[in-house]
Fold each of these.
Amino acid sequence: MVRLKGKLTVTKKTSSSKLKGVVAEEPLERIFTLEWHFYIALGVFLSVYVKCTSASIPSGDAGDFIMASHHFGVAHPPGYPLYVTLGYIWMKLLPFGSPAFKLNLLTSMIGGLAATIVYITTYKITNFIPSAVFASTVFGFSHLVWFHSVGAEIFSLNNLFCALLLYWVVRFQRAAVTNRARVAMEASFLSGLSMCNQHTSVLFISVVGSWMFISLLRDKAITAKQFACTGAIFTLALLPYIQLPLSAYFAGAPNTWGDHRTLSGIWKHFVREEYGTFRLQAQDGLSSDFLGNLRMYTRDVIKELGILTLLLCAACLTTVWHFSHIKTIVYVYAANIGVYILFFCNQANVDLSAKEFNKGVLERFWMQANIPVSILAGCGMWCLYSFIAERWKVEKLHYLLGLVALLVGTHQIRRNLTSCELNNNFIMRDFGRNMLDAVPRNGVLLVQGDMPSIITSYLRYSENYRPDVDVVDQELIGFNWYKSMIGPRFNHYIFPYDREVYFKEIQIRREEKEPFSYNFLDVFDVHRMAGVALYVYPLEMREGDESWTEIYEIVPTSMVFEVRHKEDSYSIEEFLDIADQRLKFDTSHINCDSSLYPVRSWEHLIADKCGAQAFLPAIYAQVKFTEDETAYIKPHNRLLMIKIFNFYRHACDTMTVILEDGTTKMLFKPDHNNYYGIMAYLLYQNYLSTEEFAEAGKYARVMNYQLETYMRRNDEGKDVKEDYKDIKSVLAGAMKQFPDLETNKDYDMVKLGI
């Protein structure tokens, strides 16, 4: 026998050329040692995660989970009842902090526990500390895992359950044959609980469960009674789904998803019927790109875990046949990776070509596969160590590998700390407050999209911010359950089919299958009749519904958009006065520098939106101004043009960052907002001449059209090279007509980036 450093006992090569490890149950001393390893690793991860915990509402679906946990409501499909229930109990127990901070803190603790289980699993397989340190730090301090562990997201709990399933693979393999049925029952219970959180865990469950079942049948180690008990335990573990009907009947949550008072309603939610079963997004006609998804995972796993991790993982898979006591475990882990990646890449219907942000939606689901990849990398380190130590008797090699593991972990922390330290990240809260502040008293805010809806709903219904405003989700009011479950909580929003007077004046389309069908023309009309101020965000309404466009307009008076009947349209003077009052506080205290956040994150997207929003009132006013063919004969139009130009200056101030060296950094793209600024300045500078003003107005109208075409085609993912050339051509014509623009270098022109 050869005693190796790292306390691993192996034998010299036998005739079968295999190395053997300890297969029997661990003695009491090792179990005690594992406990200390557990506490130390947990302390390390918790200390980092808790320090970085978001102090306010994070991005993603966090607001939905916080609201559901705070009010014992139901989150979006499939409901995540275990996470919601744990959050509800935790919020009741923790005596301090906002609802957002409380759930963020709980999630950080769960995330720290998940990374610790990765450590313990690797150590239990290898009994080699450097391997355990390497696997757990590479995984736990990768950007995806760290970022989604310090805000209220269900991924931490999913990571915990998947790591526990992999740990139970080791327990099952190391257990005596007569005890394996009991271990399988424990794994069945974990599997059922994991299905009460994120359903992607079913891919791990299918692999681990099939392997355990085949092993038990092969060894004749399970009876029919034990098999039935295993299935019953799995079913029992699904009990947290009782939270759905309990919430529907007793919670009275102000914001919930679906009607779960019937079995059909619960089943619809469980299978994600409203999202699309086995689909990532509920978009008809959007298919998955298997090869594109696979290429993205390959790039992302290298970026997240590092090339060294993949090399060690490959070393494990190619050398593990020498080590009979871990070979089966490694193959089961490899099968988990293969099944998960192949299935998910085939089913994930995300358009990766449209926006970088869409990749951020998809990349969150790589974390589950990265758990076994990290553990196999740790096993690969041990395999290489065993070969080298056994063949060449290298002294103190374990110290060198321990140093490597610590350096890799330190590198992960230094590389990702800035993007994952969310304790001072308030951009989501500020963005939501600005939207709510822009709505007059007793108004209604119609929101569309995950972030605007989730953020404003959380602030309104969990922090009781602006309790006089009703926040209504445009994308949910079309569901029949929305009125019965959410409608009673509204103070001002009016469902069109509730107004008898409205029925007499305007016909509403009614169908037998959908008796509550209506369009946004109906919504706008009924609120106008009732005298309720109606605001929307974002600028676009529900796709395909243009019923309102001929009668109503949406006016960008602030961070949200006011719905106005065209008969009540603002004059340009009225609009400028209102926008001037509302806009200045809307963006002044939001940091619009999107470069501070990961490019695929919600924070990056919101920062861009906040900056772009600052330009919209000026753009709207300029368009209205240049559409008026007789504007130049009005004696006060010079003052109006100055006001419009000052809006651009305010927008540029909002989108300008003063760097440490005193220089300025412009945050907006010059091919978009700058050209609007040039046109505004062009009109302002050349107002004194009627002929020149008319010429400038022509250029402004053409430029507006070209820019709208450019932005629309760019959002659709189409080639915009020719559109860009058209914009440059119009700009060149304006410069030729007004050559003084090229030499003017006053303060305002510099602020416009010209």
Amino acid sequence: MSTKEISMLDVGKHCNFCRQLDFLPFYCSSCKGTFCKEHRTKELHHCSSLKEELESKRKNEHQTAVHKNIKIGNEEYFKKLLPEPGYIRVQQEQNQKLEKNRNYIKSQLLNSNKKSALYKLKKFFEKNSKKHNGRRQKQTTGANKLLIINKMKKTAKGDKKIPENNRIYCWCYAIDDFKVPEKQEFYINKIWPVGRVLDYLAVQLDMKNINNDADVSLKDKLFLYKGDNEDSAQLLNTSDRVNNKIFNGDTLYVVRGEETFKYQRFNTNKDPNTHIYLRTKMPLNIIGTIAFEGTDKIPYFQQMKTAFPYLLGVGLAKYFFIGSKNIWERNLHGKVYILTGATSMGMGTNVATELASRGAQLILLTRRIDEWSEEFLEDLRKRTDNELIYWEQCDMSNLYSVRKFATKWLDNSPPRRLDGIILMHGDAEPWFNSKTRKSSVDGLEIQISTNFAGSFHLLDILQPAFRSQPPDREVRIIVTTCLLQSLGEVNVDDPLWSNQKFDGSLKYLSASRIQLSLCCLELQRRLNLNKKEDTGQVTVSLVNPGIMRSYSLRRIISNGSILLLILLYCIILYPFLWIFTKSGYRGSQSILHALMTPELESINLKRSTMNKNKDKENLVVESGFISDCKFRKFARKEFQDEELQKKLYDKTKHDIFELEKVLAVRRNREKKNDDTTKKKTKSKNKKD
């Protein structure tokens, strides 16, 4: 056995629970043991500290419960003895609301007709008071009420499936033309809505309930009231919850009769003496009114009719252009991803947040690390509760910075874990009146350097990292592109466009997108050819997130002007952009789909072809193009020309290598000049 194999066996530790060798073990601070991914938590490896924690937790809960009961009792006592001003104000407001409600019920009782539910309730109260010789029944309070409720628990009827803690015991009367009111005892669930209580009591009292029918007449409806007499009578809203309206010992009345409506008064602009009275309706009542009484009974119907087609059109357009949403879920704990463009505060930030919240370890590449980037990193760690997020300096427009990061990543033994790389960066210069050529540090056009040369250089150097992953690990390379690649021109002779005359930034932007996409297809083929049996599967995917309200779109529309950004983008065009473009969150869904979909797994690759040679099957993986969370076909003929892709890849690699030679000589010359100037300044300082 070679020394290299011996050193590889020394990596990692055995799990103290299952004795499995793990290269990234987890350390338990309680029992001082090392465990694998499957037994990293205390519950899974039966940590010895669990018993002590449970006992201490029980003691603390008992002590807090005792103190809490004492505290609550003291607060209630002092509130009654010396209530605070705020407590008095709240009590006064509640009493005022109850008094208004009682006065309203009294006025409705006096003005109600003989067919209304309130009139029937009034007659019931009168008969009930005559039975007691005109005296009102005394309300049960305090200890007597507790005794009565305890008796009701033995005799009350109800659904036995309701938990005892949720039961509310009450009396109920059925007030109908064909029934003699009888006092009955029931218990209901406190989490029910009042409408369900009404339906339940109607069944128990054998009352026909047709409230939910569309063609129900007004005199056949059932209403639920609460109270002991005319003063305390209250109509319960069916949308409220029981625990806020009904309590133990309350008396309920299920009354059949006509509905008494609340009216709202609105002054018209044409005639101040005329008024419109509107009846509060549910949507079904509005539809029923249109069907039986006509549209004239619906206020502002003509305005709604004219606005409805426009609102419907805007809603359908927004639904069509909003894009699809990722439906796949994946556990990313322990996985390592390299991301670019994570500080865009749009699509890239949403992708980084989603991956970090799922437990992935992220290596974020940034042009420079400053105070703002450190604050961004700390905020991302707090929001996702993930400390495994790190910055690495890598300027994608600088070939030397890209090589410096890539070689630093590769300079590690054993090879570092890498589950994927997501390139979301990009540069879009203004299109209109763009006569000046903006160059990078390397002398290339800034869009070619950032969007094409830097991305190509990074992926090309990191090929050994992709190939060195174990067979149970699948590496996914995701490169974002845009619709402008369909307008791009492929320059095989000069892929870096260093010898071309600058005639507009749009031409360079589209060329950088199409050339990077073609090189990604060739990269996928090269990874397939050099794949070994003991290495994992590597897939390269091109993702079009769609037209988003991103930094690049703002810069193109405003043409780099702050005034145009405010007037044209923020005020004039933003309503249309909101309808026809995506947000950063929606744009990130296609990238998350490419990262989590099982269609790219080695077992379920649907876009792969099986070539049978000599009774052996070789899996040939092709790069996919994803848009709106679906696999699409390439439109341009260049994506089918493998010879063109191979020439473009080789020529780009050669030109970048030659350019790096020239830049290295320049850096050495500048370094020598800096050293000489430093020596001269030191000698002058010594003489002085």
Amino acid sequence: MIYQNVRGLRTKQDEIFASLIDFDFDVVALTETWLSNEHCDVNLFPDCYHVFRADRDYAATLLQRGGGSAILVKSSIRCDFNVSGVCWSTRSLPANIGFYAKCKARSVFDFVDMMNLDVFTHESTDPSFCNNGLDLILTNCRIFTRAAEALVCPDKFHPPFEIGFLEVATVDVAETGLVFRYDRGDYRALYDDVRFADWCNVLLTVDLEESVLGLQKIITAAIDKHVPAFRPKSTKFPPWFNRNIVNLLKRKKAAHRRFKSSDLKTGINMRTGRILMSSAKCVSKKTVKLPSIKSPPNAKVTIWGSSFLTKTILLDLKMSPLLEEIRIFDEKPKAVKLANDLNQIESTSVARPFYGSYQIGFALEDVDVIVLAAGHFPVPGQKKNILFKRNLPIVLDMAYECAHHNPTAAVVVLTPPGTRNVPMISELYGKIGINDGGQIMSPMYHYEMVACKLVCETLRLPASVVSVPVVGGCCPDTIIPVFSLATPQNEFSKMEMENILTSLRKSHEKVSIQQKGRPPSLSVALAASKLVQDIVLGRFAMEQEPCSVFLKSDVIMNVKYLGAPVSFGPGGVQHNKLLPQLTDKEMKMLGEAVVILQKDAKIAEAAASARWNEFE
């Protein structure tokens, strides 16, 4: 049995997990764990322990760390108690102790007398602690010494302690070791046994306890008869550890024993142990597969960049019940400020700031969607080539980081121009060896909203009854509204269609001029947020309305990238094989847009190839 004040387990998960497997203590008592409900037991402790945790309520205390205790039990119990100023050996209380602390101390005195426990305190030698007892331990064992080995790197004021037991209670595993395979039970036969059981004797029994025992006997007999059971092999290793990992850990433990028994405390034994431990960690990381998302809120999203779009996207995502965590990656002051401001809103998700190149991996790993919102945005009159060259190094760096840290995440590209950045990122993924099955995309929903607004003004209808799908590209010069599929169905004159198309393509420039060069942000941010939530709904296997997205597609021959209405499923994009039925006029407009899209794709592929050749 071992006790240790671990001074926080948030950054010591691998260390505590490996130590518990190596040393195999029967009981482990930990204090100052600094854990919260966001930290799962399965990531911290092997499953051979029953874990009892008492985490500090950080929301109530308004603290960020400190407190918390955990007991990992195999065959006994340990506890700790903390009331400052109490002399536990003589049972004396200080004169200035508060009423609440006095009640707590006296309750512990009564508990110690009742359980016949001995009291041990670790006194601090540092004068700044005023010789107060830093660690209080209650036990009924006399074999109590400082531990030779620590579970994690020990604090100088809180050394670990070890207790040996002379007698250990045993449990009859023959009675409790069976595990029922309920997935293989014959439930039809089980139901028949329960149905035709002798319920008269059970129901006519006057004594309630005998009736309950009779009911339990019938159910237990039916389960034993029709549900197969087996006795699993006892092991201290988690179920996902394969034979290779177990053998490496055993060899590492043997090397550690040789090192401790050797007179020379350095050399081949030390190096062998470290090599085997690192090998086991590498193999276990490759073996363990994270479970797929099954139900909300369990999705994570990363927003890269604090542009004028970021605040609106964050606000809309924060109110979504689908998300568990929203990560913000940018410069330190901006990311921290945004996260603190966003966490003032009560919702199911929490915002976390990340900053600096060393935190890129933490910001991107294990998230479902990455939104790229960094870079420069267009001003009125700016050409696409100039904007693409300005954002080229930024987009390339973001693409490499996404491919390296989380190649399976969906990537929503907001950095303009989307008709070039989406193909460029897709080509980079392909050169690295990652197949883009439609996971890199740019939203087009903001054009749908503008098209609906223009149709409402033309037909003088309320916006709630109008919808207009769009196809083509995600830039103004390639967007095509599909009037033939607009609802409600109406006949548009040639002049009305041309006016709507011209207004649609110049809508962003018009807003930019009105805002003195600032591009429209609310509609684009809302479109990006809707796309993120649609992707998450698809991961949860929930239905969503198809929305227009620009991504890799094989709808039209010789056109690799095209925008069209799609829907999402657990595996990503679904139903991306068909293009809405278009009229001759719409097909002509789409043909003109395809020429521009093919040109943009060639420029993007050339830029990706040039950058790839530089790295090679």
Amino acid sequence: MLRCQTKKKRVYGAWDPENMHRAITEVKSGYSSLRKAAEKYSVPSSTLSDRVSGKVKEDGVWGSKPKLSLEDEKELIETAKERAALGIGFSKYNFMRAASAMAKTKNVAFKNKNPSEMWWRRLKKRHSSFSLRSPEATASSRHAAMTKDRVEKFFLALGKVFNENDMQAEHIWNMDETGLTLAHKPGKIVAEKGSKTVHAKCSTQRQLVTVIVCANANGCTVPPHFIIPGKTKRSLNSYDTEYLQKTPIKNANISLSDSGWTKDGIGRLWFESTFLPFIGQHRPQLLVCDGHSSHNNVEFIELARSENIIIIELPSHTSHWTQPLDRSFFKSLKNTWNAELSNFIQVTGVPVGHGQFFRMFTKAWKSATEPSIIQNGFRATGIFPFNPEAIPDEAYKPATLYTSACSQETPHHSDEHSLSPELSTSAELEAVDQSHSISLDVPLFSSADLTSATLINLPITMDADGQISVESLTDGTAVETDLAPVTNERALEVLESTIDSAKLLKFTAALISNKDIKDPLFQTWKMYKINCNNGNISDPSLPFDQNENSEENTSILSLPDPILRASKSSKLNKPETHYFVITADEAYKHKKQAQEIKKEKQEKKALKRGKIKTANKGKGKKREN
């Protein structure tokens, strides 16, 4: 009888290094033979023999020797992890390119110049402290703004509010907006292995619906406020507003916006019709929000003050670490929202439209509004329980990249002369308009550019020794000082370097047309511009031909095309938008009323058609007779 024997696959390196060390020690000391030691400690006899004879080092490993030493590999991995913390991490491709560059400095060459896939897999086995991760896309402005100083100032203000007021968890609110779209991202599905293309049906409706959410540190929420894209109530006819009346969020309000985003008027409507009716009578209460213009305006703040609601604004561009709803609730809401849309399409085979929006949202809202999820967001940001150390140090690392870049390009200055001066008097502080304030961040220059005096964030001057003087923002007369002022040309050059091109074009057009702009920055620029031209507004460097007799410049006094003229007409001629709030019940009644009006019109049209047909039949009979 023929017997087929399968050869067992040998497994290399499956022995215990500790047992191998004991076996080698016993054999070398003569305590036992090589074969007995191999059987006793369950190690291969040939491997034991090679290590005893010195053919292979005792700590040697199976396989070829790595191109880079263990220390070099650790240095490369630590660099990659440091870059990841700064927000500029290596991809796998760039990491292997860096490994190739390091090998060249060590006079070592990889096969085909770059490391192979096998090298990558073995590197992961040798070092278990790293892995490939999918990063979260974060704007560079957020990286630069997330500094420890700014966050500490926020917590100082927050701690002062807590010390001066009796704030319980149910009195601390966080408000934010998020956008939902019916075009969801499909999840993984079961398909044929090796399929090149796998499709999933999704909705063709790509309009964004904004939802204003507000929750307190106790895990409770106020009804959501929906902002539907549209201008009139007719835009709500396609939505299933009648379904909201049967849900726990039947008290939700709805507003309309041409873009579907929140606006200034809608922010005030939310505060009056949604927030205030559901927070109780206890005062004061705290509302933490970001700096969006819809709730960062004079009208909104005055309304909050009249209701004894304390508003604390989060530092700009830091909400990805300091906003409680961003840290926990919105991720849960959007994941559930995406799952509900995907389940609906997979079960029914029908894409989700406006008619299913509130039905899908109610299910996602119910799953996401767990008190523990909301409480985790307040705890992670350190707002409640109050903990300024809750934000980890890794959150501030990307900002150090921007600080280091500035410091490397500029000479070192001693701490004796501060390079971030502040306006000295309260009158000067009040003269600066907050909406168009002159930046107090000082532009730095190389030692070659520093002359006897350099204008820094006008009207501040600093000489070569770092001594600072401040000039008036109004008439340009200098405060009494022994410092030599800078030239008008140099001052104008520095000032224009801090102004973006669109605003500089606007200033230039206003200067030519002899129009005034209530902006301290414009007044300062105008003063230096006129001084540089000896009081004459005309300047050959301006982007216009100043020849008054030129036929091509008949519209020289108008704002330049295309930006300024369009922006001016849009501000002057655009009618004021009047926003409103409507409840789900009111929306349903309006919808029914619109349907009844439509039905009446159809009946009238049908009746009119019937009369015409009857008249035509009568005319036909008369002709026959």
